[in-house]
Amino acid sequence: MNPRTQEPIAFRVMLRMTIKAGAEADFERVWREIGDAVTSHPANLGQWLSRAAEESGSEGVVYYIVSDWVDEPGFREFETSDRHLEHRQRLHPYRSGGTMTTMRVVAHLPGTPSAVSHHEWETVRL
């Protein structure tokens, strides 16, 4: 929660997409090429593309797309726009399935970047 307003920090959308086997490189390329259709929307705070490490199978490779928005109305405005429809149409040929989850970010604990390796951290911690 935003400590000043007690409102959620952001509205987060997570897409789980199964991309057809063999289409991963083209999907990633097109996602990068058209990403500004999402990130240029005034309510968008950014988006991330991640490839699952262990969820791939014969039906394809699993990707997660996470995008943060100022609020839910801002996301819903984008979701119903022509810009979003075109974005979806460009990515659709690569998909064999997918789901969408929405959520409100209520807390954030930032990490502290460090040059200490995980092994060194574990040694100090113990």
Helix content: 25-40%
Secondary-structure content class:
alpha+beta
Number of strands: 4
Number of domains: 1
Which architecture name does CATH use?
2-Layer Sandwich
Helix segment count?
A: 5
Under CATH at level 1, the class stands as Alpha Beta
Strand order within the widest sheet?
2-3-1-4
- Apparent shape: globular
How far is the first residue's CA from the last residue's CA?
32 Å
Provide the β-strand percentage band.
Answer: 25-35%
Q: Give the overall pLDDT as a whole number.
A: 87
| Largest sheet: number of strands, sense, barrel closure | 4 strands, antiparallel
Domain ABM: 11-103
Protein name: Antibiotic biosynthesis monooxygenase
GO molecular function, one term: monooxygenase activity
InterPro entries: ABM_dom (IPR007138), Dimeric_a/b-barrel (IPR011008)
Structure description:
- It comes from Phytohabitans aurantiacus.
- Pfam families: ABM.
- This is Antibiotic biosynthesis monooxygenase.
- Strands 2-3-1-4 form a 4-stranded antiparallel sheet.
- With 126 residues, it is an alpha+beta fold.
- The model has no long low-confidence stretch (mean pLDDT 87).
- The chain has a single domain, classed as Alpha-Beta Plaits (2-Layer Sandwich), CATH 3.30.70.100.
- The chain contains 5 helices and 4 strands, in the order βααββααβα.
- 13% of the residues are buried.
